[in-house]
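Query structure, 203 C-alpha cells:
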C-alpha cells in the first residue's frame, strides 16, 4: 500500500493484466461489438475505478455486475447439471460452436463481482451510484439498439435472453427494458449494500 491508498497495488496490477489479455482476445474472437454488453463495459470501468480509487465508479459497477454475475453462475451451474437453463443467459457456454477460449474467458462474470465487492469493502459504497448507473444503462441501451447487429441481441435490446418478442412494439419493449433493468437488477443490490454498510458502521 502506498501512502493515501485504500486499495492495494496488487489488485490494480492483477486486474490490469487480466484486462490486457481479456480485451483483445474478446475482440478477436467475438468482435468489437461485444464491448457494448454492460458487463463487458463494466470491466473497463472497474479498471479505471481501481486506479482512481473512485467510490462512485466502483459503486456503479458493483450494482452492474453482482446480481448479473450471480444469475449467470446459477444459470450455468444448473444447465451443466440438468441441461436446463432457468434464465437462458448462458446457452452459449454449452454451444460446441462457440470458441473454447471465449467460453473460458466468459468466467469473468464470476470475477467481476469479487473484484468490485472487495473494492467496495475497502473504499465504501456511494448511494448516488444508483442514479448514475441507471443513466449510464439507459444510454448504453439506446446506443446498443442503434449501433449493434440485431441478431446479436446485445443487452437483450430486441428480446429477453434471445427469445422471440412479438408482444410489444420494438420501441415499447426498449422502454420496458430500460425501466426494468434498474428496478430488477440495481435496486435490490443497492438496498442490500446500504443495509450491510449500516451494519458494518454500527458502533
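Result returned for the query:
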Amino acid at each position: 500500500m502506498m501512502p493515501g491508498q485504500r486499495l492495494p497495488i496488487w489488485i490494480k496490477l492483477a486486474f490490469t493484466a487480466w484486462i490486457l489479455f481479456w480485451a483483445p482476445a474478446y475482440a478477436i474472437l467475438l468482435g468489437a461489438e461485444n464491448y457494448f454488453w454492460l458487463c463487458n463495459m463494466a470491466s473497463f470501468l472497474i479498471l479505471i475505478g481501481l486506479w482512481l480509487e473512485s467510490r462512485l465508479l466502483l459503486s456503479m459497477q458493483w450494482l452492474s455486475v453482482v446480481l448479473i454475475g450471480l444469475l449467470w453462475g446459477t444459470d450455468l451451474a444448473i444447465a451443466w447439471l440438468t441441461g436446463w437453463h432457468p434464465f437462458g443467459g448462458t446457452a452459449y457456454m454449452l454451444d460446441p460452436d462457440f470458441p473454447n477460449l471465449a467460453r473460458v474467458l466468459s468466467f469473468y462474470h464470476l470475477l467481476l463481482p469479487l473484484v468490485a465487492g472487495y473494492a467496495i469493502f475497502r473504499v465504501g459504497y456511494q448511494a448516488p451510484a444508483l442514479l448514475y448507473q441507471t443513466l449510464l444503462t439507459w444510454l448504453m441501451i439506446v446506443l446498443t439498439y442503434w449501433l449493434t447487429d440485431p441478431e446479436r441481441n446485445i443487452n437483450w435490446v430486441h428480446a429477453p435472453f434471445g427469445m422471440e418478442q412479438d408482444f410489444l412494439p420494438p420501441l415499447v419493449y426498449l422502454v420496458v427494458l430500460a425501466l426494468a433493468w434498474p428496478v430488477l437488477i440495481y435496486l435490490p443490490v443497492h438496498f442490500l449494500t446500504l443495509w450491510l454498510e449500516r451494519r458494518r458502521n454500527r458502533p
